[in-house]
Amino acid sequence: MLDRPRLWLSLDDADYIRDQLAFPACRIALWGDRDVLDNTGAIILHDTCYFVISLAPERVTASLLLQYVRDHWQGENSHFFLKDRWWDEDRHHTRRPGLVECLAMLNSAAVTVLWGCYFDDQPLRARADYIAWQPTMGLERPGLA
Questions:
Q1: 48 near 32, Cβ under 8 Å?
Q2: pTM of the entire structure?
């Protein structure tokens, strides 16, 4: 399989987004197309993602923008994979209004604490196990204890 990413940017659309849609920091409107091709060259997956970039156009290159997009999706994918697979967030069912949203916010806060832990050389699972045995450490990092 072959992954074929492409980036498109527009400064004119950035002006419109900044002025008409009230995103004052928008300097670059960016969208990325990603095709995944099988061995015969047929497209088996196509994605388009849109981004608003606040960096000055003269200070970035296409390869740097592509790296930012990849880094963004790496974080997003690992964050949601952790919440969905490790904590099984998607299979939580409740009839109480607002409870699912509260659980999602608590899980996101927990992931934020785990990412900001002191021992950055450990995987998130090891950090969570460590904090499970010393819960006050999880509260010290965001300044809650």
A1: yes
A2: 0.54
Q: Which is higher by pLDDT, 34 or 92?
A: 34
CA distances from 121 to 44, 125, 138 (A): 36, 12, 17
The residue written with tokens 């999880």 in the block is 138
d(CA 51, CA 53): 6
**Amino acid (one-letter) located at 67:** Q
